């Protein structure tokens, strides 16, 4: 874990920073977070992340006036200050303290920390074994696509996956459509057509999802449980792990991961170009 953290634009030693008890993200989940891959001290795919940060700030009605270049430079300074060449940065944005349900104002702050990890993306040698979690269903609303600090479904679906010795679990929305996994966006392949759940179905608007949609022909629409069982391939994507292919969904076994490999190769090329 990091020795230094970034509070707004100030680098501080970790022990110098304390979270106030009246922090609104802690009290009311009045905030959101962003997780960013670091490769060679640089924030990978940062333009996608910044666009999502701007959209989330507008949604939460946060006053936010830091430019893309300034924020990017600040986060890269955090990586260099901690001497972490490759890893992940987690940034939490929250409305400043004050008020109860009604905030005193819309001023906001953020805090970022970094931890070391792979300085590249790797393609999983063994396919994932995943399940389906339906006990809590994700509601469809304007906040569904952002990464709110309220992550109950992701927490409990992850616990459910561990209890069943799965690598991950898919989750559903209030209409019983499949939307994502506990921590990743979902893509299925049928007859060489790549399909991913629509944002209207409440999936997180993932930065890796956006990258794939920009670089491949992808259908965005609702996906049913039956379609999962009829698909030729399943793969999961997120900003940190890149592309991971699925070998088994409960009792269904997939025989191919060719398209997932093509997507990974494109990601690998982009990694080289950005490094």
Spell out the blueprint of helices and strands.
Blueprint: E1 4-7, E2 10-13, H1 24-28, E3 31-39, E4 42-43, H2 46-60, H3 68-81, E5 87-95, E6 108-116, E7 128-138, H4 152-163, E8 168-173, E9 178-181, E10 185-190, E11 193-196, H5 207-215, E12 218-220, H6 225-230, E13 233-238, E14 242-249, E15 252-253, H7 258-274
Parallel strand pairs: 7-8, 7-14, 11-12
Antiparallel strand pairs: 1-2, 1-6, 3-4, 3-5, 5-6, 8-9, 10-11, 10-13, 13-14, 14-15
Keywords for this structure?
six-stranded antiparallel sheet; D-amino Acid Aminotransferase, Chain A, domain 2; alpha+beta; 2 domains; single chain; 275 residues
Summarize the structure in words.
By secondary structure, the chain is an alpha+beta fold. It has two domains: 4-116, Aminotransferase class 4, branched-chain amino acid transferase, N-terminal domain (D-amino Acid Aminotransferase, Chain A, domain 1); 128-274, D-amino Acid Aminotransferase, Chain A, domain 2 (Alpha-Beta Barrel). Helices cover 28% and strands 32% of the residues. Strands 7, 8, 9, 10, 11, 12, 13, 14 and 15 form a nine-stranded mixed sheet that branches. Strands 2-1-6-5-3-4 form a six-stranded antiparallel sheet. Strand 11 (193-196), helix 5 (207-215) and strand 12 form a beta-alpha-beta unit. It is globular, with a radius of gyration of 19 Å.
Briefly, what is this?
Helices cover 28% and strands 32% of the residues.
User: Which CATH-level-2 architecture of the largest domain?
Assistant: Alpha-Beta Barrel
Radius of gyration: 19 Å
Number of helices: 7
Mean pLDDT: 96
Structural class: alpha+beta
Tell me the name of the CATH homologous superfamily of the largest domain. D-amino Acid Aminotransferase, subunit A, domain 2
Unreliable runs: none
CATH topology of the largest domain: D-amino Acid Aminotransferase, Chain A, domain 2
Helix content: 25-40%
Percentage of residues in strands: 25-35%
What characteristic shape results from the CA principal axes?
globular
Query: What is the succession of H and E elements?
Result: EEHEEHHEEEHEEEEHEHEEEH
Instruction: Sketch the major β-sheet.
Output: 9 strands, mixed
Classified by CATH, the class of the largest domain is Alpha Beta
Number of domains: 2
Count of strand segments? 15
Separation of termini? 23 Å
